[in-house]
Amino acid sequence: MPLLARTTLGSLLMLGATPLLADTDCARPDRSAWMPESQFREQMKHQGVQITKFRITPGHCYEIYGFDAAGRKLEVYYDPVDARPVEEVASSGLSAPDHP
After folding, report:
1. Apex CA 59: angle with CA 55 and CA 60, to 5°?
2. Is the predicted pLDDT of residue 56 greater than 90, yes or no?
3. Residue 92 pLDDT
4. CB of 15 within 8 A of CB of 7?
5. Burial level of 67, CB count in 10 A (0-12/13-18/19+)?
6. Which parts of the sequence belong to the PepSY domain (predicted)?
7. Which of 14, 66, 77, 83 is deepest in the core (most CB within 10 A)?
8. Is the pTM of this model over 0.90?
9. How many other CB atoms are there within 10 angstroms of residue 25's CB atom?
10. For the CA atoms of 52, 30, 89, 100, what is the dihedral angle to 10 degrees?
11. DSSP annotation of 15
């Protein structure tokens, strides 16, 4: 297959996969309405969630990776205004790490 045909085909395949890479969209109010990260982390801690990674997504969500109180691995998107779970991406029966 000629190089130009392979390049074009590859580009078309990448464009078709783009929607699969999109982030979850959450509330879009002014950031002054968002729950502070420290308060969100404290709320998760009280629920028994151990956060190993926290980020704000391009879709304006709080996203955490970590473990729930039962030791299941989590990846969950939360609304930054009220800390309501928006989408659970992954969870499994893996045990939480032994370190705090």
Report:
1. 60
2. yes
3. 59
4. no
5. buried
6. 7-88
7. 77
8. no
9. 14
10. 10
11. H
